[in-house]
Specification:
Keywords: DNA-binding, Transcription, Transcription regulation. The chain is 64% helix and 13% strand. By secondary structure, it is of the alpha+beta class. Strands 1-3-2 form a three-stranded antiparallel β-sheet.
Length: 107
């Protein structure tokens, strides 16, 4: 999970993931969408791939990239624990408040 968090800390990498979330794109097409050098985008792609967030496929001389949802599972599970804990607390508060209201109604 640390590698994924480090990779996602860079805004361009998050944008790259958004670009390839629903479609496979060649490295050149990804690079054209940024105002940085092609080698810089190549480095970002490498970091994302090594973090398990991108899948690279070769087609002839092209390198095609798409997001790998499995690479985000560990991070999702981590965040979900906070979300579920918050929901559980909210549910407990609501149940406690409802019980107080019922006691007042019975009194």
């Amino acid at each position: 999970m640390d590698a994924q968090l480090k990779a996602l800390a860079e805004p361009r990498r998050r944008k790259i993931l958004e670009l390839v979330r629903d479609q496979e794109l060649p490295a050149g097409e990804i690079a054209r969408r940024f105002a940085v050098t092609r080698p810089a985008i190549s480095q970002h792609l490498t970091v994302l791939r090594e973090a398990g967030l991108l899948i690279e496929r070769r087609e002839g001389t092209k390198r095609l990239y798409r997001a790998d949802p499995a690479g985000l599972l560990g991070l999702k599970r981590f965040v979900d624990r906070f979300w579920m804990t918050g929901l559980e607390r909210l549910k407990l508060e609501a149940e406690t408040e409802a019980a107080r209201g019922e006691r007042k109604d019975q009194a």
